Amino acid sequence: MHPNSNQLSHMGTNKYYVVWKGFAPGVYDSWEEAEMQVSGYPDASYRAFKTMEAAVEAFREGFDKESLIKEVAREMERLEKEGTVIEFDKKKSGKADIPKAEAPAEAPAPAKTTTPIEKTTPTETTPPVKKRVIVQQPPPYLVDSLAVDAACAGNPGPMEYRGVLVRTGQEIFHVGPMEGGTNNIGEFLAIVHGLALQEKQGTRLPIYSDSVNAQKWIRIGICKTQLEENEQNAPIFDLIRRAESWLRTHTFRLPIYKWETSKWGEIPADFGRKKH
RNA sequence: ACAUCC
DNA sequence: GGATGT
Ligand SMILES: [Mg+2]
Ligand SMILES: [Mg+2]
Hints:
The chain is α+β, with helices and mostly antiparallel strands. 30% of the residues lie in helices and 18% in strands. It has seven helices and nine strands; from the N terminus they run ββαβααββββαβααβα. Strands 7-6-5-8-9 form a five-stranded mixed sheet, covered by helices on one side. A hairpin with a 5-residue loop joins β6 and β7 (171-181). It is globular and about 55 Å long. The site of one magnesium ion has 4 residues, from β5. One magnesium ion (MG) binds next to β5.
C-alpha cells in the first residue's frame, strides 16, 4: 500500500511521511522524498500521517506502532484458532493444566535518540521557505560504508553475492549465481570482493556483513567450508582459492563490522527473498 | 546458544 | 521445516 502521490499535486502536499527503516530514517513532507529513502531498501518501514505532530511523535516511537498492533492481532487470532488459552491472571493460579501461551511479541526498543543531526547542508537548490526534511535521526550505523550479502537458492545451491553503498543502495558489485555454493562461502567471498575491489579503486569504506561466520573466516584468512569440491561447484572453489590467495598476498584491510539485523532490519545488500 | 541461508 | 557454520 503506497500513499498516493498523484492527487493534488499542485500547491505542495499535505501529508507527512515517517520513515523508520530506510536509507535516511526521518520525517518527510513529500512522498517523493520519502520514496527515495524506502525504495530498494529491504523491509523498509514507513507510513503517512496527516499532521506533522502525529508524524514526529510516531517517528520518536522508533517503530511503526500500527503494523505492530496488526501483528499482535494476527498472532492472537492464530492462538485462538489453535485453541490456546491466554491466561492474564497474576501470580496466584490454582488452575492446573492451562496450556502455556507464547509471550506476545515485544515492542522493539525505540531507536536510540542521540544528538539531533544537523540538517543536510542546504544547497542553492534547496527550497528556501519550506524545509523538506522535518526530523532526521542519525542512523545507528555508518552510512559511509559498503554492505555485502550473499544468497543461495537452497543451501547448498546456486549462490550469489553483492555489495551496495549503504548511503544510496547503489550496487557496486554482483557475482553469480554460481552452482552449488553455500551461504557461508558466499558471505565470505562477498567480503573479500569488497576488500579487493576497494583496494583497486582506492576507496576505504568500512564493510558491513551480517555473517559472524564470514567475518571469522576473513580474520583467519581461510574459507573453512565443509562443502566438498566437485565438478559442479568447481568454479566456486576456484574463486575461494583466489580469495584466500588475495588475503595472503595483500596487507590492505578495512574495518569489518557486524550488521545488527535484529536491531536495524535487513542489511541493505540483502537479496530480499527469504520466506515470510 | 549465536549468526546466517533457503 | 532443512542446511551452513562457530
Ligand atoms: Mg547475510
Ligand atoms: Mg540476506
